[in-house]
Protein backbone atom coordinates (compact mmCIF):
# COMPACT_ATOMS: atom_id res chain seq x y z
CA UNK A 1 0.00 0.00 0.00
CA UNK A 2 1.04 3.59 -0.57
CA UNK A 3 1.03 4.50 3.13
CA UNK A 4 3.17 1.47 3.97
CA UNK A 5 5.75 2.44 1.36
CA UNK A 6 5.72 6.04 2.61
CA UNK A 7 6.38 4.85 6.16
CA UNK A 8 9.35 2.80 4.98
CA UNK A 9 10.77 5.72 3.03
CA UNK A 10 10.23 8.25 5.81
CA UNK A 11 11.82 5.97 8.41
CA UNK A 12 14.90 5.71 6.23
CA UNK A 13 15.25 9.42 5.52
CA UNK A 14 14.12 11.02 8.79
CA UNK A 15 16.77 13.25 10.40
CA UNK A 16 16.73 15.16 13.64
CA UNK A 17 16.38 18.51 11.86
CA UNK A 18 13.80 17.16 9.39
CA UNK A 19 15.72 18.41 6.35
CA UNK A 20 15.93 16.50 3.08
CA UNK A 21 17.71 16.91 -0.24
CA UNK A 22 14.44 18.12 -1.78
CA UNK A 23 13.77 21.82 -1.32
CA UNK A 24 10.72 22.57 0.89
CA UNK A 25 10.32 18.91 1.89
CA UNK A 26 10.74 18.00 5.56
CA UNK A 27 10.49 14.52 7.05
CA UNK A 28 9.59 13.86 10.68
CA UNK A 29 9.84 10.94 13.09
CA UNK A 30 8.77 11.12 16.75
CA UNK A 31 9.01 8.23 19.21
CA UNK A 32 7.22 9.74 22.23
CA UNK A 33 4.08 11.73 22.97
CA UNK A 34 5.95 14.99 23.42
CA UNK A 35 4.68 18.54 23.13
CA UNK A 36 7.19 20.62 21.16
CA UNK A 37 7.45 24.33 22.03
CA UNK A 38 5.01 26.64 20.18
CA UNK A 39 6.24 27.71 16.77
CA UNK A 40 5.31 30.04 13.94
CA UNK A 41 4.06 27.68 11.24
CA UNK A 42 4.59 28.56 7.59
CA UNK A 43 2.15 27.88 4.78
CA UNK A 44 2.39 24.14 4.38
CA UNK A 45 0.88 20.71 3.90
CA UNK A 46 1.61 18.16 6.62
CA UNK A 47 0.78 14.51 5.91
CA UNK A 48 0.75 11.88 8.66
CA UNK A 49 1.64 8.36 7.53
CA UNK A 50 1.77 6.62 10.92
CA UNK A 51 0.43 7.59 14.34
CA UNK A 52 -1.40 10.83 15.01
CA UNK A 53 -0.87 14.50 15.75
CA UNK A 54 -2.89 17.17 17.53
CA UNK A 55 -2.51 20.81 16.56
CA UNK A 56 -3.95 23.81 18.40
CA UNK A 57 -4.48 27.36 17.22
CA UNK A 58 -6.09 29.45 19.93
CA UNK A 59 -9.20 27.55 20.96
CA UNK A 60 -9.28 25.50 17.77
CA UNK A 61 -7.96 21.94 17.94
CA UNK A 62 -7.22 19.76 14.93
CA UNK A 63 -6.59 16.01 15.19
CA UNK A 64 -5.28 14.12 12.22
CA UNK A 65 -3.76 10.70 11.78
CA UNK A 66 -2.34 8.28 9.22
CA UNK A 67 -3.68 9.01 5.76
CA UNK A 68 -4.78 12.54 6.61
CA UNK A 69 -3.15 15.87 5.90
CA UNK A 70 -3.41 19.38 7.28
CA UNK A 71 -2.96 22.60 5.29
CA UNK A 72 -2.37 26.12 6.60
CA UNK A 73 -2.82 29.16 4.38
CA UNK A 74 -1.08 31.79 6.52
CA UNK A 75 1.87 31.85 8.91
CA UNK A 76 0.51 31.60 12.45
CA UNK A 77 1.62 30.55 15.96
CA UNK A 78 0.72 26.93 16.60
CA UNK A 79 1.23 24.31 19.27
CA UNK A 80 1.17 20.61 18.55
CA UNK A 81 1.47 17.26 20.26
CA UNK A 82 2.28 13.86 18.88
CA UNK A 83 0.00 11.04 20.00
CA UNK A 84 0.21 7.25 19.81
CA UNK A 85 4.01 7.49 19.48
CA UNK A 86 6.36 4.78 20.74
CA UNK A 87 9.91 3.71 19.79
CA UNK A 88 8.42 0.57 18.27
CA UNK A 89 5.79 2.52 16.32
CA UNK A 90 6.81 6.18 15.97
CA UNK A 91 4.72 8.95 14.48
CA UNK A 92 5.88 9.45 10.88
CA UNK A 93 5.00 12.29 8.59
CA UNK A 94 6.19 14.79 6.07
CA UNK A 95 5.77 18.50 5.57
CA UNK A 96 5.79 20.27 2.22
CA UNK A 97 6.18 24.03 2.45
CA UNK A 98 3.83 25.77 0.02
CA UNK A 99 5.25 28.80 -1.79
CA UNK A 100 2.94 31.66 -2.76
CA UNK A 101 4.64 32.11 -6.15
CA UNK A 102 4.06 28.47 -7.11
CA UNK A 103 0.41 28.55 -6.03
CA UNK A 104 -0.12 31.80 -7.95
CA UNK A 105 1.40 30.33 -11.11
CA UNK A 106 -0.92 27.31 -11.04
CA UNK A 107 -3.97 29.44 -10.31
CA UNK A 108 -3.37 31.59 -13.34
CA UNK A 109 -2.77 28.62 -15.64
CA UNK A 110 -5.84 26.63 -14.55
CA UNK A 111 -8.87 26.37 -16.87
CA UNK A 112 -11.63 28.67 -15.62
CA UNK A 113 -14.06 25.86 -14.80
CA UNK A 114 -11.53 23.95 -12.69
CA UNK A 115 -11.40 26.22 -9.67
CA UNK A 116 -15.03 27.24 -9.19
CA UNK A 117 -15.95 27.00 -5.53
CA UNK A 118 -19.34 25.56 -4.66
CA UNK A 119 -19.16 27.18 -1.24
CA UNK A 120 -18.80 30.95 -1.48
CA UNK A 121 -17.97 31.48 2.19
CA UNK A 122 -14.45 32.45 3.24
CA UNK A 123 -12.21 29.35 3.40
CA UNK A 124 -10.67 28.32 6.73
CA UNK A 125 -6.99 29.15 7.31
CA UNK A 126 -6.41 25.62 8.68
CA UNK A 127 -8.08 22.50 7.32
CA UNK A 128 -7.75 18.73 7.66
CA UNK A 129 -8.65 16.25 4.96
CA UNK A 130 -8.12 12.63 3.96
CA UNK A 131 -5.45 12.26 1.30
CA UNK A 132 -6.73 11.03 -2.05
CA UNK A 133 -5.05 8.13 -3.82
CA UNK A 134 -3.74 10.60 -6.41
CA UNK A 135 -2.17 12.78 -3.72
CA UNK A 136 -0.61 9.79 -1.96
CA UNK A 137 0.74 8.43 -5.22
CA UNK A 138 2.42 11.73 -6.10
CA UNK A 139 3.82 12.04 -2.56
CA UNK A 140 5.32 8.54 -2.72
CA UNK A 141 6.98 9.39 -6.03
CA UNK A 142 8.43 12.57 -4.54
CA UNK A 143 9.93 10.83 -1.51
CA UNK A 144 11.29 8.00 -3.69
CA UNK A 145 13.47 10.59 -5.39
CA UNK A 146 15.52 10.84 -2.19
CA UNK A 147 16.90 7.45 -3.24
CA UNK A 148 17.41 8.59 -6.84
CA UNK A 149 19.86 11.52 -6.72
CA UNK A 150 20.42 11.42 -10.48
CA UNK A 151 16.75 12.20 -11.12
CA UNK A 152 16.08 14.43 -8.14
CA UNK A 153 16.91 17.87 -9.52
CA UNK A 154 14.87 17.36 -12.69
CA UNK A 155 11.86 15.42 -11.43
CA UNK A 156 11.32 16.81 -7.92
CA UNK A 157 10.00 20.20 -9.12
CA UNK A 158 7.58 18.42 -11.46
CA UNK A 159 6.21 16.09 -8.79
CA UNK A 160 5.96 18.93 -6.26
CA UNK A 161 3.91 20.81 -8.82
CA UNK A 162 1.61 17.81 -9.20
CA UNK A 163 1.15 17.58 -5.43
CA UNK A 164 0.30 21.27 -5.29
CA UNK A 165 -2.25 20.80 -8.06
CA UNK A 166 -3.86 17.92 -6.14
CA UNK A 167 -4.11 20.18 -3.11
CA UNK A 168 -5.49 23.14 -5.07
CA UNK A 169 -8.20 20.99 -6.65
CA UNK A 170 -8.87 18.91 -3.53
CA UNK A 171 -11.47 19.15 -0.78
CA UNK A 172 -9.82 22.18 0.83
CA UNK A 173 -8.41 23.69 -2.32
CA UNK A 174 -9.86 27.09 -1.46
CA UNK A 175 -7.64 27.20 1.63
CA UNK A 176 -4.55 26.38 -0.41
CA UNK A 177 -5.48 28.87 -3.11
CA UNK A 178 -5.46 31.66 -0.52
CA UNK A 179 -1.69 31.20 -0.26
CA UNK A 180 -1.26 32.54 -3.79
CA UNK A 181 -2.67 35.91 -2.77
CA UNK A 182 0.57 36.63 -0.91
CA UNK A 183 2.50 36.72 -4.19
CA UNK A 184 3.05 40.42 -5.03
CA UNK A 185 2.81 39.60 -8.73
CA UNK A 186 -0.59 38.05 -8.36
CA UNK A 187 -2.74 41.02 -7.42
CA UNK A 188 -2.63 43.02 -10.70
CA UNK A 189 -2.28 39.95 -12.90
CA UNK A 190 -5.07 38.16 -11.03
CA UNK A 191 -7.23 41.24 -11.53
CA UNK A 192 -6.50 41.11 -15.26
CA UNK A 193 -7.19 37.38 -15.44
CA UNK A 194 -10.46 37.88 -13.59
CA UNK A 195 -11.44 40.62 -16.06
CA UNK A 196 -10.65 38.35 -19.02
CA UNK A 197 -12.64 35.50 -17.52
CA UNK A 198 -15.64 37.74 -16.97
CA UNK A 199 -15.40 39.46 -20.37
CA UNK A 200 -13.89 36.70 -22.51
CA UNK A 201 -16.41 37.32 -25.30
CA UNK A 202 -15.27 40.94 -25.73
CA UNK A 203 -12.23 42.12 -27.75
CA UNK A 204 -9.73 44.24 -25.82
CA UNK A 205 -6.43 46.07 -26.19
CA UNK A 206 -3.52 45.01 -23.99
CA UNK A 207 -2.77 48.67 -23.30
CA UNK A 208 -6.29 49.20 -21.91
CA UNK A 209 -6.02 46.13 -19.69
CA UNK A 210 -2.63 47.28 -18.39
CA UNK A 211 -4.11 50.66 -17.53
CA UNK A 212 -7.01 48.95 -15.76
CA UNK A 213 -4.63 47.16 -13.36
CA UNK A 214 -2.27 50.12 -12.95
CA UNK A 215 0.78 48.87 -14.83
CA UNK A 216 2.74 50.04 -17.83
CA UNK A 217 1.96 47.98 -20.97
CA UNK A 218 5.48 46.54 -21.12
CA UNK A 219 5.58 45.54 -17.43
CA UNK A 220 2.07 44.12 -17.62
CA UNK A 221 2.83 42.05 -20.71
CA UNK A 222 6.09 40.75 -19.22
CA UNK A 223 4.53 39.80 -15.87
CA UNK A 224 1.44 38.28 -17.47
CA UNK A 225 3.61 36.01 -19.60
CA UNK A 226 5.90 35.06 -16.71
CA UNK A 227 2.95 33.90 -14.60
CA UNK A 228 0.56 32.42 -17.17
CA UNK A 229 3.16 31.39 -19.78
CA UNK A 230 0.98 32.91 -22.49
CA UNK A 231 -0.10 36.32 -23.75
CA UNK A 232 -3.32 38.08 -22.68
CA UNK A 233 -4.88 37.49 -26.10
CA UNK A 234 -3.89 33.83 -26.17
CA UNK A 235 -5.23 33.46 -22.64
CA UNK A 236 -8.55 34.89 -23.77
CA UNK A 237 -8.64 32.40 -26.65
CA UNK A 238 -8.05 29.53 -24.24
CA UNK A 239 -10.89 30.75 -22.00
CA UNK A 240 -13.21 31.04 -25.00
CA UNK A 241 -12.38 27.57 -26.28
CA UNK A 242 -12.71 25.85 -22.90
CA UNK A 243 -16.09 27.49 -22.43
CA UNK A 244 -17.05 26.41 -25.96
CA UNK A 245 -16.11 22.84 -25.15
CA UNK A 246 -18.34 22.86 -22.07
CA UNK A 247 -21.23 24.17 -24.18
CA UNK A 248 -20.50 21.63 -26.90
CA UNK A 249 -20.83 18.75 -24.44
CA UNK A 250 -24.37 19.90 -23.63
CA UNK A 251 -25.37 21.06 -27.13
CA UNK A 252 -23.36 19.02 -29.66
CA UNK A 253 -25.43 20.09 -32.70
CA UNK A 254 -25.19 23.83 -32.05
CA UNK A 255 -21.59 24.35 -33.18
CA UNK A 256 -22.04 27.56 -35.16
CA UNK A 257 -24.03 29.27 -32.43
CA UNK A 258 -21.59 28.14 -29.74
CA UNK A 259 -18.73 29.79 -31.60
CA UNK A 260 -20.69 33.01 -31.72
CA UNK A 261 -21.65 32.77 -28.03
CA UNK A 262 -18.02 32.61 -26.89
CA UNK A 263 -16.94 35.55 -29.06
CA UNK A 264 -16.11 34.25 -32.54
CA UNK A 265 -17.65 36.06 -35.51
CA UNK A 266 -15.99 33.65 -37.97
CA UNK A 267 -17.02 29.95 -37.85
CA UNK A 268 -13.88 28.97 -39.72
CA UNK A 269 -11.64 30.77 -37.22
CA UNK A 270 -13.51 29.13 -34.36
CA UNK A 271 -13.09 25.68 -35.90
CA UNK A 272 -9.41 26.29 -36.70
CA UNK A 273 -8.48 27.51 -33.21
CA UNK A 274 -10.59 24.81 -31.54
CA UNK A 275 -8.74 22.14 -33.48
CA UNK A 276 -5.38 23.69 -32.65
CA UNK A 277 -6.11 23.47 -28.92
CA UNK A 278 -8.04 20.20 -28.64
CA UNK A 279 -6.70 18.23 -31.62
CA UNK A 280 -10.01 17.96 -33.49
CA UNK A 281 -12.57 20.43 -34.88
CA UNK A 282 -15.79 20.93 -32.90
CA UNK A 283 -17.71 18.57 -35.19
CA UNK A 284 -15.29 15.71 -34.43
CA UNK A 285 -14.37 16.35 -30.81
CA UNK A 286 -15.05 13.19 -28.73
CA UNK A 287 -16.30 15.38 -25.88
CA UNK A 288 -19.64 15.65 -27.64
CA UNK A 289 -19.98 12.09 -28.91
CA UNK A 290 -21.89 10.74 -25.91
CA UNK A 291 -24.35 13.60 -26.09
CA UNK A 292 -24.74 13.17 -29.83
CA UNK A 293 -25.62 9.51 -29.31
CA UNK A 294 -28.44 10.48 -26.99
CA UNK A 295 -29.98 13.09 -29.28
CA UNK A 296 -29.57 11.52 -32.69
TrEMBL record:
Top-rank taxon: Bacteria
InterPro entries, alphabetized: Homeodomain-like_sf, HTH_AraC, HTH_AraC-typ_CS, Tscrpt_reg_HTH_AraC_N
Key word DNA-binding present: yes
Keyword list, A-Z: DNA-binding, Transcription, Transcription regulation
UniProt key word DNA-binding: yes
HTH araC/xylS-type domain mapped to chain residues: 190-288
A GO molecular function held by the record: sequence-specific DNA binding
Protein name: AraC-like DNA-binding protein
Organism: Nocardia bhagyanarayanae
